[in-house]
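I would like you to sit down with the record closing this message with an eye to the fold:
=====
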Amino acid sequence: GRQLSDPGLVATVRAALQAHGCAAGRLVFEVTETALVTDMSTAIESMQQLQTLGAGVAIDDFGTGYSTLLYLKHLSANDLKIDRSFVRGLGVDSYDTAMVASLISLAHNLGVRCVAEGVETIEQFTLLEQLGCDFAQGYLFSRPVDAAALEAWLDRHVTTAAPPSQADAPCISPPARILALLEQGAGPHTLAAVLNSDGHRTADGVRWSARSVTRDLLHRPA
């Protein structure tokens, strides 16, 4: 909470963005509820100034702190991050499942995007997609990495300058695992995540997306 109370915070952020040539819209500040407890009025003022600058604000670990709804009322957050303690019980614990569904609905009713933390299994990801969650993060996608490892990961998963290797063989027909997920009602985002995690690529040698799954697998001619 000390950073939020720093009167020079916004100026420091602005200078850093200019120094690195980074657009403010690419920056999201994650604020814990406990940090807001320290000095809510100052924290809210700082967050509003950062949003005016163009940065985003996310309430982290939502549901585990104090006066949660009060923060939502006074802080115009862009994202609400559901704590992993609720995500862990998805599909297993009826209370956790109901809680996650309610938080997603609450976020959307307030015009806020919802992010699920601690996603570790395809089953959790599939259920979150069915519940309408906007984003997910967790070990299912990657463990925390340093800057060099992140650049390497982006080179492998985002750019396609080099031809696909044997491990990245294009997937023309749906694998058996994909067919099984289809029977379970999995959506295109889930199918794309599974294909990419298994090393499959499209016929063009690029990573799968929800759009390419829909186009090439779900709506392909019989």
In short: Residues 94-109 form the longest helix (16 residues). The beta strands are 28-32, 56-62, 79-82, 113-116, 135-136. DSSP finds eleven helices and five strands in the chain.
